[in-house]
Amino acid sequence: MEKKILVETSARHVHVTQETLEVLFGKGHQLEVRKMLSQPGQFASTDKVEVIGYNKKDPSAPRPSAKLSILGPVRDHNQVEVSFTDARTLGLSAPVRESGDIAGSGKCTLRGPAGEVDLEEGVIIAKRHIHMTPADAKEFGVENGQIVSVLVDTGSGRKTIFGDTVIRVSPKYALAMHIDTDECNAACAFGEVYGTLVK
Q: pLDDT, tens digit, for every residue of 127-158?
């Protein structure tokens, strides 16, 4: 039987640098773990930050905003990951990108209890991807950066093949596919869901 891949929904969230974290929450602030995530060492923190977008139809109107969780640990760059629905609601420009590929991406303002940070880039819609260890990649016969398709069938009448899914390989990863909330809703991929590679 072909090995299946856990499919997880990655809700909108924010990654920040330590410098940005201290502007938002005060000097010396540290992220605290609220919940560990499936990828080793990654966690949802107890902190949330307000992401402020733009009213494109009326720039003088109040700017739309939403509170997003900050994931830890801190990174070497700021990144805001949203769905297409989130981007439209907040008036954000957000290209589909792999995590870390933020050059020329969307801008927004981050607001915390201690201050604000204007991001000139960093807002993206994460390209769907599969985390694999080198052993996983060998078992599935794929390599880092390869683009594959994944069948998700939850028996809901919404069988979906997700194309344009990038393989990401590292010994630091655990096997899991990540999709956003729009993709989850389209496939009724709620709860514990598994997918299979389409040959």
A: 999 999 999 999 999 999 999 999 999 999 99
Which residues contact residue 155 at a Cβ distance below 8 angstroms, ignoring those fewer than 6 apart? none
Residue with tokens 């630091």: 172
Q: How many CB atoms lie within 10 A of CB 195?
A: 24
The token pair at 62 is 């109040």
Would you kindly state where each structural domain of the chain is located, as residue ranges? 11-126, 128-197
Radius of gyration of the chain (CA): 18
Assess contact for 152 and 178: CB atoms under 8 A: no
> Could you give the CA distance from residue 117 to residue 152 in angstroms, rounded to a whole number?
39
In whole angstroms, what is the distance from residue 199 CA to residue 196 CA?
Answer: 9
> Rounded to an integer, what distance in angstroms lies between the CA atom of residue 177 and that of residue 145?
14
Taking the domain 128-197, which CATH number applies? Answer: 2.40.40
What average pLDDT does the segment 26-33 reach?
98
The 3-class secondary structure across 55-118, one letter per residue, is CCCCCCCCCCEEEEEEEECCCCCCEEECCHHHHHHHCCCCCEECCCCCCCCEEEEEECCCCEEE
Closest-CA residue to 78 (of 134, 26, 117, 34): 117
